[in-house]
Automatic annotation (TrEMBL):
GO MF terms held by the record: oxidoreductase activity
Name of the molecule in the record: 3-ketoacyl-ACP reductase
InterPro entries membership: NAD(P)-bd_dom_sf, SDR_fam
Keyword Protein biosynthesis (UniProt): no
Key word Oxidoreductase present: yes
Entry's family note: Belongs to the short-chain dehydrogenases/reductases (SDR) family.
Keywords attached to this entry: Oxidoreductase
Amino acid sequence: MPHVPLTGRVALVTGAGTRLGAAIARALAAAGADLAVHYATSGAGAEAVVAEARSLGRRAIALQADLYDREALAGLARAALDWSSGRLDVLVHNAANFDRVVPDELSADAWDRAMALNATAPYLLTLELAPALRERRGAIVALACISAERPWKNYIPYSVSKAALAHLVRGLAVGLAPDVRVNGVAPGTVLPPSSYDEATLARLRERIPLRRIGEAGDIARAVVFLAENDFITGQILAVDGGVSVA
C-alpha cells in the first residue's frame, strides 16, 4: 500500500468551495485526511469537493459560515468539532477578501473588510480551535501573499491585511508551541482572472523567473508539505516562481 502520511487526520479548510481552497482540500483528502469544507457562498463547489473526498474513502462535510460575522465564525468551529467528535489535526486559513481598490477609492470600509476576513477571522478561528489542535499536536497553515512584503498599488488594504496575517503566523508559532505548528504559504501569480488576455498573461510570465504562471496544485502541495512536516513552524513559504527574489 502507498504511504499516506495524513491518513486518519481531520482537516478544516476555510473558503474551500472554489479556486485555491478547493484545490487544497482535494490535496489533503488525496493525502488521507478527512475534511470539513467551509464555504461562504460557493455551496455547490463545496459539495463537489465533499463528494470527491468521499469517493476516496474519506469522511467529509460542507459547512457554511460568514466569517465576517463573529458569531457565525464561532458556530463554524463548533460545527466542525461536533462533526469530528472534537478532533482537529489541520486548520487551513484560506478564505480571503481580494478586493481591488485603486488609491483614489481607498476607504474605511475597504480597510475593514480586508482586515476582518484576512487577519481577524484567522485569529479568532484559531482561538476557537486551539484547544482541539493542542490535544492533537496539530498544524495550522495560513494562505498569506507575496504582497505582504511588497504592497500592490491597487490592493493596499489586501496587502496590509496579508502582512498582518504573516505576522500572526509568526506570533502564533511561538505562542502555540510546542503543541501546535503554525506556518504560511505565500502564493505569487496563481489562477489569474479569466478576463486576462494572452498579452497580459505573457507580461505576467515575463516577470516570473521560472517563466510560468502558478497553478492551484503548486500551492496545494506546499500546504500538504507543511501539514505533514513536524519540524517546521513559524515559516512563510513563498510559492511564486521566484518573483520574491527577482
